[in-house]
Amino acid sequence: MDTKRDSESLLDADLLQRSLQKALHKGGEFAEIFVEDRRSMSAIFDDGRVEELTSGRSRGAGIRVIAGETTGFAHTADLTARGIETAVESAAAAARSGKSESASVKLGRENKNSLKVEKLPSTVEKSKKVDLLSQANEIARGQKEEIVQVSVGYGDSRRRIQIANTDGLFASDDQIRTSFSVSCVAAGDTGLQTGRESVGHTVGFELFDEIDIEEIARKASQRAVTKLGAVPAPSGEMTVVVGPGGGGVLFHEACGHGLEADLVGKSASVFAGRRGEMVADPMVTLIDDGTMPKEWGCYAIDDEGHPAQRNVLIDQGRLTDYMWDYLRARKEGRTSSGNGRRQSYEHLPMVRMTNTYLEAGTSTPNEIISSTNYGVYVAQLGGGQVNTATGDFVFGMTEAYLIEDGELTSPIRDGNLIGNGPQALLDIDAIANDFAMGSPGTCGKDGQGVPVGDGTPTLRVARLTVGGTAA
Amino acid sequence: MAPQLYEWHASQLVERLLKMSELLEICEQIVNKAADNEQIEAVAIYSRETEVRAYEGEVESLTAAESQGVGIRVVKDGRQGFAHAGTFTLEDLIETLSEARDNLEFATPDEFCEIAEPDGVEPVALNVYNDELAKVATEEKVSMALELERCTREKDSRIIGVESADYSDSISESAVVTSTGIYASSKETGCSLTTYSLAEENGETQTGFGFSIGRRLEDLDIERAAVDAVDRATRMLGATKPPSGRFTVVLDPWVSAQFLGIVGGTLNAESVQKGRSLFAGRQGEEVANSSVSLIDDPTDPAAFTATSTDGEGLATRRNVLIENGRLNQFVHNSYTARKDGTSSTGSAIRGYSSTPGVGVQALAVIPGELSPVDLIAQVSDGVLVQGVSGLHSGVNPVSGDFSTGAEGLRIRDGELAEPVREFTIASTIQKMLSGVSGIGNDLQWLPMRAAGVTLVIGELTVSGA
Question: What is the ipTM of this complex?
């Protein structure tokens, strides 16, 4: 165990309690102080050399004061009593209810959390991190002569957070994430092509006991080389099979964002008012789970102090619930689902996904592919985007193949696919038994990025529009 | 021996309102610690922001924010190390400098790795700072956000809601000081209104956004933002999926600016040197239609990203990237310039938490003579694209493959016709540049590193039904 991990509180209970009380006196009905201390380390190997190592540290507090429908928010990098006091004043000034609450705030004992980490990255010598990079570079370059450029990235971060609010909540978490990625460029008669593979977990340096960097390097370089022989992607509506792991992005965009209660509450989601309805075939069960051990989007408590939860969003085809943060749950008189997250102390929390995944089905991947006459097989997805109000979403393919007569044939060039969320859910007609989690992602919403995970088994959508250039 | 830092007094600088001289002072004190055999570069930023979000006649949130940060780069024997911190306390600055020094020990030596040196180019005087903005009362900002929300909501009976209506402003200052003699600073103000409307008809919802940006409150136009948001949403009502096929595509300024931004991203010397640009080795060649001239000019005060100095503290300048269709030059920072035996084009881009990259800062094509209406009149069968999605997932700037989700209006016989959505447009960056067949006279600077103009591009693949 990591005995070196200090567990000293970020701010002391007295200061927090006094500051919260002050926020109420100034007219707030609810107040919260979010304290964060983040350290990060990254290393980049590019163009044949260790280009740079970067260390970073940031810390500060974000203060939220709510009165009526209004949230006042201020943040400060000054964690002294004076800094906090000033920020409380500016947040409270924004949320003026006219009344002054004299109710006292009583914080109990700090509920200290931390997910288990075996090797705290900050205790690992930098030279060890750098060695991984050059090792991966050599493997990637050694694979094929077509590889002309390789970039390898290492990153670790430790994010300590502490939350106290006027309901008496007082909790902290210590989140450690480690990631590794390899990107390759291959050159051939058809120009340049790229291949990338990345892995990231909410763990320490033990990540490298669990993963094989040789395999990551090989996958990235193979992907780039394979695409040198890629044909233009087809254009138009067709059947799309998504391979294990990658398909999570599809759900993240097709319905995940649309199930976030803040968007639902503003009627900015096509899934508003549809709880209890069948939205997909009964084989579809979709879960958002912030408790999945080690996954990229997991944590002990969210950024509002609520414990992470496993939330079933779609249960055998039926829409069961949305995802909630404190503010949206409060309006509905219910509890948060542990989905209140923020990029940093400089941001207001909002409803965000954690690890979103589709439960495995019963078909085999082979059955699904061999029963598909013509279409596209997407082995790796490259991100996506959705307009939750219309439901229209896109996702990119960064490794894909044509399916012809039930077999994978030519690799195809990069492109986007487009569909409409509710329709795409209804069009899922096969799910395999080969569940896998995908690559670590960063989900962006309203300018804030947070780490998320996703996963799926192989699945088939009867109809999506593939945005290629081939007739 | 590393110099000691104990005589610093930077901890006194955590004041509510830092002055430019203080940012420079922080940087200077760091840089003064440089040993004889090392170079140090320090950047520091400080900004204050206000954001007001209105919803259904009330203030949903009001944010008063202060941000600051410092980045320290140390170069010694061709190796660089970097570290950054989000605070200016003495303890953090000491740790940051020592981390940067430690980090360089692990880098591979590179003969071109050095901190930039003054190059004798005088920065242009840019008036991008407006004192008045700092004095505007919060009440006034709040009322603008509320008015924007009300105005958007009441414009059309089909508007069922306003997802968000925001007022925001920022006052920011930055400084770069190096042990090689660079001593640069800049400050700027900006404010904006942004609104997202929801329109509904026959159970179908469409969305649209509108905005207005400026450096002073008086620059902001509530009416214009509201009208744009409402028009963009209501004209999409009843949209269907177009058939797949090859069409002439007209990109509106909002979309063309994003496309040009991607093109700009391929024209930086770092990508070229590292073999990641599709334009590597093509200098002097015809890469676009001869009507296309692409200029990166951060000294143009009309650009919202205008700046007199770049991320390394060198003067920015006007760079002609593509001239009459011919690839003229790439943009450089001091590192890529040294490597290519040329001089920096003042194109180092960075935040305080990263080392200087290279990129365009204020990109625009030279506008044409025809109005958007005249350009559309020449298209017999095409699509006007007013919005794109998934540029980050469907465009590969290395291979040049371009595929993006889109929405807009059909063009039939030179006139705008029915709305279309849930389709993609696809081609390659190379073919799109060659295929430019019309450039509008409607150049407008947008809240990004590029300006937009109506662009007509022949023969793109539209994938729909």
Answer: 0.93
